[in-house]
Amino acid sequence: MAIFKKMHYKSKLILCYLVLVSFPLILCLVLLYQSIVKPVRENAVSAIDQRLDQELNTINSKIEKIRNVSYLVSTNTVINKFFVPKFYGDLELIEILNNDISPLLSWLEASSPEISYYHFFTNNPSIPETQYLHQYDDYRSEPWMQEMEDSIFDKGFYLEPCHINRSYSYGYGGEDQMVYSLFYPLLTSNNFLEVCIKPSVFFEDMKTIPAMESGFVAAVNSDGKIISDLPAKVTADFRHSLEERLMEGDCLSDSDEGPFLVSLAQTEYLISIKQIGSLDSWILCAVPGAEIVGPVLKAQQLFTLVILAAAIGIVLLSYLLSTLLIRKINTIIDAVHKIQEGDFHVAIPVNGEDEIDQLATDINYMSFRINELINRVYKARMLQKETELSALQAQINPHFLFNILDTFKMIAIIHDLDDFSDSIAALGNLMRYNISPASYHCTLEHELQIIRDYINIQNLLLNNRVTLLLSVPDNLLRFEIPNFILQPIIENSFVHGFENKLSELIIKVTIYRGDSSIIIKIEDNGTGISGEQLQTLTAAMKKSTETLEVEPISLDPQERESSRSGKSIGILNVNLRLFLLYGRHYSFTFSSSDLGGACNTISLPVSIPTKEQEENFLNERSKL
Prior knowledge:
Layout: H1 2-6, H2 9-20, H3 22-74, H4 77-82, H5 90-111, E1 117-122, E2 133-135, H6 143-155, E3 158-164, E4 178-185, E5 192-197, H7 199-203, E6 216-220, H8 236-246, E7 260-264, E8 267-276, E9 281-288, H9 290-340, H10 355-414, H11 420-435, E10 441-443, H12 444-461, E11 466-471, E12 480-482, H13 487-497, E13 505-513, E14 517-524, H14 531-550, H15 557-565, H16 569-582, E15 587-592, E16 598-605, H17 611-623
Parallel strand pairs: 1-2, 11-13
Antiparallel strand pairs: 1-5, 3-4, 4-5, 6-9, 7-8, 8-9, 10-12, 13-14, 14-16, 15-16
């Protein structure tokens, strides 16, 4: 163990490679063995597939022959003329039926032994029912008749899957027999021909030729029932077991997946299935497994056991060796995870002299240095954030106060001095709100009161042309938001949206709660915002937040001049403050309002970030 500790990690890996090389060796042995066994199986499967393809070709040829005969009958002039409504009188109809139609159908049955029965369905009520003729309306509601009509509409004929022979009013006997039914429309409307074919017509030759030495071929319907005759050696119990197995696990629906092995009568059989698409039936070939892999089956089982035992031994040995190697790596990974979570008081035990121990020593030193640096810069980062927030508010307040003073100047010219009492009271509320250092947050109720004061001052100048519409649920009035984020947006509406507008000015503030956020919408009926202005403003907001992620706030002299000239600096500053407080967990968007002007939409998280969350945000930003 002491030698193993002093080994280089490269040497340890080489030792593992020497152990793992046994895997490709075993794989080569398996492939070599498969190269002997697999061709035997593939040749047998190929022979089975060829036999099934031959049977399919024979069956399809018989189907095509029956279809041709049925089509000729359905287009026969004598037969079609007979079904024309009111073409004959009653006596003449019976005479033609006895002298022409019945002999013709009897001849067709005799000349086409593959067809068991003929049936005609007619909508001519004057035609009497016989063993051949049936009234169409008597069977129109039957499901099989509806499926027949849909198929004839799509394909021009309908080959009904194998079913029990139906008993019509004057039908043949043998209702318990299984038949296929082929339908063709006559040339006259709503008259149909049905020919019934026994399954033995298609499958009677299967039992005469065995599959390989002792296998057999059979036909199966969609219910898993064997509908063809089987060789005499196949017992009733074997047949029943095969039918039960075919209905387990959707064998028929998965027939395209290739041959599969089943155990029947204590014998393994290789079953291969192919579908007869036009008959909705299947043909299967069952061959005893011993005929395919008999000579090598025992050797294959023994070889498999040897490989399995060798694999288990190698896996256990590799597990023990890898455990020794990976234990120390897991210790390092756990320590790194703690560092990622902010715990820098990490000390990884070092017991050896290899490369992993050197890595653990370096991580311990790195953790110590990071912890020392955090203690040094933590307070500086917190002070930087407070400074950034104060700087943002300082940019807005002078701009705001200058506009108010200009307003009062105009009021002094237009009104008497007595009107200043309300103006000064509102201005006092606004100044007190702006310069208050107590908190960066306030309630919605407080923020909305400041908006009312601001609108009152504007109404003094604009002759009460400004209407403020508020839609705020009472349960949201105590919700805390960053202060001074709504007034700059409303001021922006006056500066940009109501310029040269002489009609009534409407500002609508709607606040409601979403699934996990508070939605604030500020709309006006001003001049609106053009597509170009929207792109410019959106780009400016995106650039400012991207810049803030990597460096502190810094407005150069040109930006300060823009602030004084009112070029959306209020909007940008509001966005920066929200970004500092919420990170990426808020949204600030612009669109057109139903009132005709602009619509500003702010989405804030339901909970205001705590002081600890704000500190964590600064720590994350310091890592960029």
